[in-house]
Amino acid sequence: MASVNSGQSPLIKDAWTVNELSHELPLARSGREVVEHAQVIAAGAGAARVEPEHLLLSVLSLKNGLAARALQGLGKNLDSSALSTRVGQAIAEAPGRSPVGPAARYVLYNALKEAQLLGHYRVDSLHILLGLLYKGTPTAEQLEKQGLSLYDLRQFMQAPGPGVAGLRRRPLPSLHAAISVSPIFAIPVAGFLGGGVGLFLGPASALIFPLTVLFVVGGWITSVCVHEFLHALVAYLGGDRSVAAAGYLSLNPLTYTNPLLSIVIPLVFVFISGFGLPGGAVYVNSRVLRTRWWETLMSLAGPAGNLIFAIGLIAPFWLGWGGGLTPRTVPFWAALAFLGFVEVSAAIFNLLPLPGIDGFGALNPWLPVDTRVQIARFGSGGLWLLWLLVFWGGGAGLWHAIYQVAELLRIPMGLVSAGRGQLIP
Fold first, then answer.
1. Catalytic residue check, 343
2. pLDDT digits (tens, 9 = 90+) for 315-366
3. Residue pLDDT, tens place only, 42-97
4. Catalytic option among 51, 53, 228, 343
5. Does the model's pTM come out above 0.90?
6. Of 220, 253, 215, 239, which is closest to residue 294 (Cα–Cα)?
7. Who has greater pLDDT, 170 or 152?
């Protein structure tokens, strides 16, 4: 004979919170309000679980959302003074909120089925009312006696209207389970912060070079992760779920990088020239993005990350924190100014309209298809062209533009030169 456990079985779940249901069901604001209101009604009535009856009481007592508008449009006034008194008393006596029981959850899944049949992406209060009309649901007979039918409510949902039209727009996906932070990301962040703290404390001259290397290299790799993470984040919101499966939303530098092209060459470039080149890469399936605008936003998100990172580095200079320099404090402020300049140059380089670079990626969706096909043959040729421009003197105008932007952002160029000297003795 099996023993009965009065507690909840670890294998069979019979109660759910609204947040748990939200991970399973795309609840619209009014749909979530119905469930939360039903929880209070159930608790006030002394019920251990929210049942379909509590969902019905909630739908009928709430005066906003499509359910209330549909009932009014169909001439079905199911509210009454007795109902209002009952609901009001339950709410007044509610000690908290009861969890949602299996029968009510079944109604919500029927509501989701109705939403999907109607081409809607979120579950509204009217979908819940439809779910309450399903055969076998305790509330179905009660509603049918009041003259309500699935057919009438479905016809209302198919009619044009501002609330209905909003349900047909695909909502942004939940990021709850998609985003994670890899422990590997802590390595460059620790180097960046550790080098910065060491320089700020005024180290011995022999330690200035290694601490500057730690600060700049750690900061650069951190910014590459932020750059590529933002590409992936916008791509995910735009409809490409593959970026989550590929680990691009983890901030793990190993997922963004080719050791040679993404780390070694850009860092060598920083050491030699003091400029930041595009580094890592995420691979996005642009064909599944919602619109061309999403593809453009995805391409611009990475350079925006460099710019945000740069602003965080140079904002102290705007606040006047780098004033009154002494030989002890110069190494920190010089390294800070230099890394800020590197990030600004990386943002500008990434915005150039060259194939294989983000600037071109932002324009690419708007070009004729045959032009896009021809340019695609160049692959990452734009990156090689950029290297040629910088190393062989053809980019004097570009260098001048970068310096002008840096001065516009009030980056102390004297400190930038001092920081470059710390890194390139």
1. no
2. 999 998 877 788 899 999 999 999 999 899 889 888 888 787 888 889 988 8
3. 888 888 999 999 998 888 888 777 788 888 777 777 665 555 566 666 666 667 88
4. 228
5. no
6. 239
7. 152
List domains and CATH numbers for the chain.
Answer: 18-167 (1.10.1780.10), 183-423 (no CATH)
- Structure tokens given for 254: 């190993």
The whole-number pLDDT of residue 109 equals 93
